[in-house]
Amino acid sequence: MGSEEVKIEKIDGTFIKIHCENSVAKEISDYFTFRVPNSQYSPAFKRRVWDGQIRLFNYFTRKIYTGLRNKVVQFCLDRNYECKFENFKEEFFEDYKSYLDDLHLYSDSGEIQLRDYQRRAVEMALDHKRSLLISPTGSGKSSAVSS
After folding, report:
1. Where, residue-wise, is CATH 3.30.780.20 in the chain?
2. CA–CA separation, 66 vs 12, rounded Å?
3. For each of the chain's 147 residues, which pLDDT tens digit applies?
4. Cα torsion for 26, 24, 8, 65, to the nearest 10°?
5. What is the sign of the dihedral through the CA atoms of 81, 84, 90 and 91?
């Protein structure tokens, strides 16, 4: 059996498009799908409107978040699929660590200090240029992006 070809095309800053056979797209869809913990208690799940799963890859449009590009490449490597790229160029990020040290965030009640995990999340996102951060409600996402 010959190797499958997967072409990864940059659409914009948010999405990439995967050009591949339907069977490979189904594999990618299954790989990038996960069940939400306690989804069975969600009203949408109880009404049978939602199956309790998050699908990061859209099988019909063939789009997935740009931050998952490296995971798609690893998926292809693990299965000996040939990977080709289209419309990609490396982006330049300035040294941001000194900027984070001097960053002062303010709210109506005064200055806000970034928590350790917020700072690590910002550093990880900038180190990896593009990434997907999964952070629960109440973890301070708004504080981490305000300026």
Report:
1. 5-86
2. 8
3. 457 889 999 888 889 999 999 999 999 999 999 998 998 898 998 999 988 888 999 999 999 998 888 888 888 888 888 888 888 765 545 556 666 666 666 666 777 777 788 778 777 777 776 677 777 777 776 654 444
4. 20
5. negative
The position carrying tokens 């999340």 is: 121
Query: CA-CA distances (angstroms) from residue 41 to 36, 47, 48, 50, 68?
Result: 10, 10, 11, 11, 29
User: Which fold, 5-86?
Assistant: Translation Initiation Factor Eif1 (3.30.780)
Token readout for 34 is: 């996960």
